[in-house]
Amino acid sequence: xxxxxxxxxxxxxxxxxxxxxxxxxxxxxxxxxxxxxxxxxxxxxxxxxxxxxxxxxxxxxxxxxxxxxxxxxxxxxxxxxxxxxxxxxxxxxxxxxxxxxxxxxxxxxxxxxxxxxxxxxxxxxxxxxxxxxxxxxxxxxxxxxxxxxxxxxxxxxxxxxxxxxxxxxxxxxxxxxxxxxxxxxxxxxxxxxxxxxxxxxxxxxxxxxxxxxxxxxxxxxxxxxxxxxxxxxxxxxxxxxxxxxxxxxxxxxxxxxxxxxxxxxxxxxxxxxxxxxxxxxxxxxxxxxxxxxxxxxxxxxxxxxxxxxxxxxxxxxxxxxxxxxxxxxxxxxxxxxxxxxxxxxxxxxxxxxxxxxxxxxxxxxxxxxxxxxxxxxxxxxxxxxxxxxxxxxxxxxxxxxxxxxxxxxxxxxxxxxxxxxxxxxxxxxx
Length: 430
Fold this sequence. Notes:
By secondary structure, the chain is an alpha/beta fold. Helix content is 43%, strand content 12%. The chain folds into two domains: 254 residues, Rossmann fold, CATH 3.40.50; 159 residues, Rossmann fold, CATH 3.40.50.2000.
């Protein structure tokens, strides 16, 4: 079977697809992967062939505010709208590349991350079966849940259905009306009919298989969940063979609690979480390990570190997580699940991208504390970490989640589902 893979050129979107691609290649399938050349080496290591952007821009999404200063001046909903319109423009550019790629590679299936909207457009236009691997919380619209961005717990009561219905209507027809109009104009330019949905709702509706890398216990229950949505467990982040433990690594073996503080690789402003965490946990009887998301420690502009704090540009989660007692996070989907896969409870503080929803799910699932802000005070972080360490229910619930996640082999499960979808699509077309 031949798979065309399409991914948004961001580490958090490419990395989850890598183990799935490796498993498909291992099972004898042919893969061609379309994304930025920055990921070529990792892609080719899976056994897939790489093809880069042809006429589409190769945007470094880790430098968005630097590349687009006008974005940096926007906040909240305004910035979210700007981002969505950028995603629409990028999808249209990439959509222009893909027909030429398909002429040289007769794909049977398109596999894309859930934000690669060019793949959705291509599937509509060509009729090729589309599978999406989600890289964030499950955003399927439901009568039992509020739309993404509100950070509200699910409610399946009659009043809850009224609330959810109104909020879903509000988002589609009022809050993001201009974005939807922009999207439909783009579709018209490409010869496609109006969507009638938001970008994300359309992505679920147009896909034949939707892979959600978590377990049901972490996600809000939906009585109307589409049948092609499948939970596959947590995807491994991959090893870091080049990682050399720093000189202080043996301190993780001490009896002191170890707290890992991470902001991932995109929202890395240290003033939002890393700095306040260092200040709030200074002098506590614990070892605090902070990561800068790849930036040098000097570039972060942090002052002299307290005696109990260790700061590194990068640490291997695979190596450090068995030693961690609490992780302080801004709600990155992959990092959150890797912590839970090791039974580590969390303190969550984030509201950009999809992070408000992930932080809300952390609290709803009972695996940690949600501070409901992306800029908590040092005192808030200190209090929350102490609470998670003292209240054993958080650790117990995290270990229960660990046990449920351990029942899944996500790459194998994804590959099996993709094969079944491809075979079914072939039988229908035959």
